[in-house]
Write a structure and sequence with these properties.
Structural class: mainly beta
Strand content: 35-45%
Distance between the termini: 68 Å
Number of strands: 30
C-alpha cells in the first residue's frame, strides 16, 4: 500500500511537471503577451546582492548591482530607473513600443481584459479580443489609452509618432464593422490604420479594401510627414492587387492616401514584418518568406530551407530597389527586426536554426557556430548592401532577438532566452524564458557587450520590444513570474500573464 502511494505521488509529480513545462513551452515564442499598468505610476524596485528584489523604500529607485560572479548583471555604467507592471484579468498582449520625441513612449497590441487598465475600453457587442494603443510618460504614467474593436478579433501590431506629432497605429481585423462605412470583407482578414492626435483623439481610420487575407505588421514615419507600412496580402483586388500572395510595402502621404507601393508575390507567400526610414527618406524592410519564385526569384538564395529572410533598401518613393541582402540557409531563418544605422545602411536582427536542429551550419551562416536550438543573430549591412559585421546571441537552448534600435553610437537589442551558457553565461537563467537587454558598441559590433541586464523571474518572461534614445532604454514585455525581478508583479493571482516596462539609463564610458 505504501509503495502504491509513493508510485502514485511520483506519477502525479511527473504529470504536473509535464503540464507546467508544456504551458511554458507553448505560446511564449510566437505570442507577444503584454499588459498594462494597474495604476498610472511607477512601481519602485530594489535589488539585493543576489539580484532578488526587495521591498521599495522610496519613490526614487536605487539599485545595488550584484557581483559579476553571480551570473546576472556584469559590471556596467547603466542604471535601472524604474520598473512598472500592468494588466487586467484577461489576456493582454503588447506587440510593439515606440519612443516619442518628448520622451514619452507608445505601446500597442490586443487584449481580452475589461478591468484595471482596460476599464472602460471595451464596448458592448465587441468580440473580447480587441486592440489598443496607449501613451505613457517618460516616468511610466499612463497618459491615455484608446481601443479598437468590433464583431470579431482585432489586433494592433505596430505604432509610431509622425513628424506632426500625431500617432499612427496599424494592424488587422476579422471584424466587419470596425468602421461603419468601410467595405470590410466577410470571413477574411482586413488590414487597418488608425491615426490619433498627440492627446489620443481619433483623427481618421482606414480599412484597406481587399477580398483576401491582408495584414499590416509595421509602420515607420517618413520625413515628409507621411509613413510607410509593411505587411502581407492574398488579395487580388482592392488596395493590394496581388497576382498570387506575398509581402507588401505601402507609402502613405500626410493625408493617409497611398502614393506608392511594392508587391512581392510568391506561391508560398511572404511578409514584411518591419520597416524603417532614415533622414534621406530611404526605406528599409525586413521580409520573411518561403517563396523562391515569382518576385522572390530575383533574390538569389531564397528557398534554401524553411523560412528565409531578405533585407531590402528602397528609394524614398519605393520606385527603385537599391539593394537586397538575402539571409538564408537550409534551416529556419527569421529576421523580423531592423533599424537604420544613420549612414545609408541598417542593422537587421532575428534568429536562425540549423536544419533539423543538427548544429551544422550552411548558407549565410556557414562559418558561424550554432550554439543551440535557435540562436539570436544580428548583422550590419552598409550603404551598398554588403554585410560588414555579424553578432551571435547564442546558448545551448532557444534564444531570440525581439527588437533593435540605434542609441547614439551603440545598438540596443531586446530578446528572451532559455540559455545559461555560452553568450548567456553572464546572464544565467532563473527559469523558463528570461528576457534581456544588451547594449553593443557600433564600432566593435562583434565584440564584448557594453552592458546587459536580465529581466527575469522563475517562470516565463519575454521582452518583445525595445525603444529609447541614446541614453534611455525602455524594454517592454510579458511575464508569468511573481518573484525575483517581478516580486511586485500584480495581478498574478487572477491572470496568467502580466505586462512590464523597464527603463534604464545608459552612459557610455
Amino acid at each position: 500500500m505504501g509503495i502504491n502511494k509513493r508510485l502514485g505521488a511520483l506519477l502525479l509529480f511527473f504529470i504536473m511537471f509535464f503540464v507546467q513545462s508544456l504551458q511554458v513551452a507553448t505560446g511564449r515564442r510566437d505570442k507577444v503577451d503584454v499588459t498594462f499598468p494597474t495604476v498610472p505610476g511607477e512601481t519602485t524596485v530594489q535589488f539585493d546582492a543576489n539580484y532578488l528584489t526587495t521591498k521599495p523604500t522610496s519613490a526614487v529607485i536605487t539599485t545595488t548591482e550584484p557581483p559579476t560572479e553571480e551570473g546576472y548583471v556584469p559590471a556596467g555604467a547603466d542604471e535601472d530607473v524604474w520598473s512598472i507592471t500592468f494588466g487586467g484579468t484577461g489576456s493582454d498582449i503588447v506587440r510593439s513600443s515606440y519612443y516619442c520625441n518628448n520622451g514619452d513612449y507608445l505601446v500597442c497590441g490586443n487584449t481580452s481584459s475589461k478591468d484595471r487598465t482596460m476599464n472602460g475600453c471595451y464596448t458592448a457587442g465587441w468580440v473580447e479580443t480587441y486592440a489598443f494603443v496607449a501613451r505613457y510618460s517618460s516616468r511610466g504614467a499612463l497618459r491615455w489609452i484608446n481601443s479598437i474593436g468590433g464583431n470579431n478579433v482585432t489586433v494592433a501590431y505596430d505604432t509610431a509618432e509622425l513628424t506632426d506629432g500625431s500617432i499612427v497605429c496599424v494592424g488587422y481585423t476579422l471584424a466587419t464593422n470596425l468602421i461603419n462605412s468601410a467595405s470590410a470583407s466577410q470571413n477574411v482578414i482586413d488590414a487597418f490604420i488608425y491615426r490619433y492626435s498627440s492627446n489620443g483623439d481619433v483623427l481618421n481610420r482606414y480599412v484597406a479594401p481587399g477580398s483576401g487575407y491582408d495584414y499590416f505588421y509595421s509602420v515607420a514615419a517618413t520625413p515628409d510627414g507621411g509613413y510607410v507600412v509593411g505587411g502581407s496580402s492574398t488579395s487580388h483586388d482592392g488596395a493590394f492587387n496581388m497576382t498570387s500572395s506575398g509581402a507588401v510595402i505601402m507609402k502613405f502621404d500626410s493625408g493617409n492616401q497611398i502614393v506608392s507601393s511594392v508587391r512581392l508575390n510568391g506561391t508560398s507567400g511572404g511578409a514584411v514584418y518591419d520597416v524603417c526610414t532614415d533622414a534621406n527618406s530611404t526605406v528599409f524592410a525586413a521580409c520573411v518568406s518561403v517563396s523562391s519564385d515569382g518576385d522572390f526569384a530575383q533574390f538569389s538564395g531564397m528557398g534554401a530551407g524553411g523560412n528565409d529572410s531578405v533585407i531590402l533598401k528602397y528609394s524614398a518613393d519605393l520606385s527603385t530597389l537599391r539593394w537586397a541582402c538575402v539571409i538564408a540557409s537550409s534551416g529556419n531563418d527569421r529576421f523580423e527586426h531592423i533599424c537604420s544605422d544613420g549612414d545609408g545602411g541598417c542593422v537587421a536582427a532575428g534568429y536562425y536554426m540549423t536544419k533539423n536542429n543538427t548544429g551544422v551550419t550552411d548558407g549565410f551562416f556557414e562559418e558561424n557556430a550554432a550554439y543551440g536550438k535557435e540562436d539570436g543573430y544580428a548583422v550590419k549591412i552598409n550603404s551598398v548592401g554588403t554585410v560588414t559585421a555579424r553578432r551571435t546571441f547564442g546558448g545551448s537552448e532557444s534564444d531570440f532577438i525581439s527588437g533593435v534600435y540605434k542609441a547614439g553610437a551603440n545598438y540596443v537589442f531586446s530578446g528572451y532566452s532559455k540559455s545559461s551558457d555560452y553568450m548567456f553565461r553572464t546572464l544565467g537563467n532563473i527559469g523558463g524564458y528570461d528576457s534581456f537587454v544588451i547594449v553593443v558598441d557600433g564600432a566593435s559590433f562583434s565584440g564584448s557587450a557594453l552592458d546587459m541586464h536580465p529581466i527575469a523571474g522563475t517562470d516565463a518572461d519575454c521582452a518583445y520590444s525595445v525603444c529609447g534614445s541614446s541614453f534611455e532604454i525602455i524594454v517592454t514585455g510579458t511575464t508569468s513570474s511573481d518573484d525575483e525581478f517581478f516580486w511586485t508583479t500584480v495581478p498574478m493571482n487572477d491572470c496568467e500573464e502580466t505586462g512590464f516596462a523597464v527603463k534604464y539609463y545608459f552612459q557610455s564610458e
